[in-house]
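Co-fold these.
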Amino acid sequence: MTMKNDTLTIAVLPGDGIGREVMPACLELVNAATTMAGAPALAFQTHNAGAQYYAESGDALPASTLDACRKSDAILFGAMGWPDIRFPDGTEIIPQLDLRMELGLFAGVRPIRWFPGLPRVLTDPRAEQIDFVLVREQTEGLFYARGRGEIRNDEEAYDTMQITRSGTQRVTEFAFDIARQRKRRGKPGNVTCVDKANVFQSMAFFRKVFDEVADRHSDLTKDHAYVDALALNMVKKPWTFDVLVTENMFGDILSDLAAGLIGGMGMAPSADIGDKHGLFQPAHGTAPDIAGKGCANPSAMFLSAAMMLDWLAAKFGQPTLADAARLMEGAVEHTLSTKLAIPMEYGGNANCAEMTRSVISSLSAAR
Amino acid sequence: MTMKNDTLTIAVLPGDGIGREVMPACLELVNAATTMAGAPALAFQTHNAGAQYYAESGDALPASTLDACRKSDAILFGAMGWPDIRFPDGTEIIPQLDLRMELGLFAGVRPIRWFPGLPRVLTDPRAEQIDFVLVREQTEGLFYARGRGEIRNDEEAYDTMQITRSGTQRVTEFAFDIARQRKRRGKPGNVTCVDKANVFQSMAFFRKVFDEVADRHSDLTKDHAYVDALALNMVKKPWTFDVLVTENMFGDILSDLAAGLIGGMGMAPSADIGDKHGLFQPAHGTAPDIAGKGCANPSAMFLSAAMMLDWLAAKFGQPTLADAARLMEGAVEHTLSTKLAIPMEYGGNANCAEMTRSVISSLSAAR
Ligand SMILES: CC(C)[C@H](C(=O)O)[C@@H](O)C(=O)O
Ligand SMILES: CC(C)[C@H](C(=O)O)[C@@H](O)C(=O)O
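Predicted complex below.
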């Protein structure tokens, strides 16, 4: 923990589609919450990146933006990518993957929690107790293959997955840290290693390194699950999960599935954390089908910003930022549980502006 | 279609754990159903394989069993593997993977259908319309890496995924065939290619070959989905799915998830189909936690055997075998929808013997 007296600078990357709609809403809420909590104001600096900017400039992630991200205290990210705008070779514009690699954002943190007031997806009433965190390794695994794949004679294609000891250690340590924080709040304090160690060497190695790390955390418990069985149990009994840690590709699939259990992407925040940097973005994409209509649900963006405030609070020893995060989360909860506003994706009619207004007006109730 | 006059021979591999419990129940039901349908009796020949047999003999998949599988007209498979019984190098005993490779069982067919009478897993009432088929490629993809993985200096591990043109063509053709059969029964006739073409060369290649095949089936439709988005939609709107085709590892994860949507492995049959051979097995494993107690739900085994009868009927031009399959499926449906017997895993108290008795006694109702 470092005390920091000057203003914290946030690199803001709204991106494309609904990213550009939920981001201004989010900044408004963060300003209101930090003010109410008596926390230091944050300096937001908006930067260009994404598919639309690529179409205008030929650059999807300008060096100046990347540089600003490196120098900032945290990165707030909307969503990027657009179906019709691609690189000349036909590949998609997904600067979020570049940022993960460039900034070493090795831990994809995806908290999954049911919010009272939302329609339940699973019939089992215990689904209301869903509260777990998926930690996705984000710098290697199958995604190591990105840009390295090989197609031979238009007949065979190969992609290689990489698991390193250091990569597995750091993400596993990270997962145990989260489990410890959660244990203080009465959670089980368990980390599940999700792999396919019964078939793949790399996954057996992942499990082995996980076990070595787990041995150093005797105050916490661990277990293992094969990814297929875990996917089944995620539908059957997700309320039994605490912290999960897994390989990049598995984590990509499981985090979307997990978001589905709590009603979809509209309520799923995420954080991409590295040793030095933290990037916070809703789990949803740019949603071309609804973009431009002002009807996106900004809740996941709000909750991602709350994760950012918590992270900044811990990093810079500024507890009032964590207070602001609690206010924001509480305001989202209050809005939904009192049905002050129901997002369109959950059958309500609150558009982005109305959701934002309701959440801001709920800040005082969350006090 | 080949007419065949001599008796069809079925290689029966009960395997381990509850495989040994559900298999005899299944053979009893198949005999009763074929008799009632006036279909030719099948000759069942039981063979050794699996973890328990490995513990006794040092051989998990004897050459004689493999040979018998090759010579048989179809293979009926229970479940194999056991936590405590492993090869000397610590790897698990999973002869099902060897059989897929040895016999070229390239298409893993996993029909997912909700059965009236079962508790619904999803709150949305449209979940009662769930009826799709997942086709998992089973001879390459990430599983190509099995036995080929590499660990370097206990620091890095690598596994390589392979996608071939021929492998993708055959499994895609297979998926379009299924879609065509389903279209005759009033289904949409659509095949969804599930991939991660936005990140991986191999997956872009998979999609490209899929598209080439799709172009040859202008009577049917196609679409694409990224595997993460598909996992989300599998929870959000699985009733919109028709036929899905995907890579081996993705298919492994998604088929377990899909089974979860209809209440778990107890109702999920599967078929592993190749150019020459067909292997039919419940999607569940050996269930060490309940094995030996006689309480396993044999329904998935029954439904897998019904898939076998359909496949034999088409292959050998014996429509009465398909009649027997309809009787078996109808009897399972009747048992569940009338609550004649409720499997323990769905909160009832019917053990394996009681379920079997009820299903057999329901054959006449299914007529
Ligand atoms: C956009 C896409 C490449 C990305 C990924 O696969 O990581 C996304 O799905 C995510 O989860 O952040
Ligand atoms: C037993 C295991 C190796 C196997 C697989 O991963 O293919 C199983 O999960 C399956 O789906 O048949």
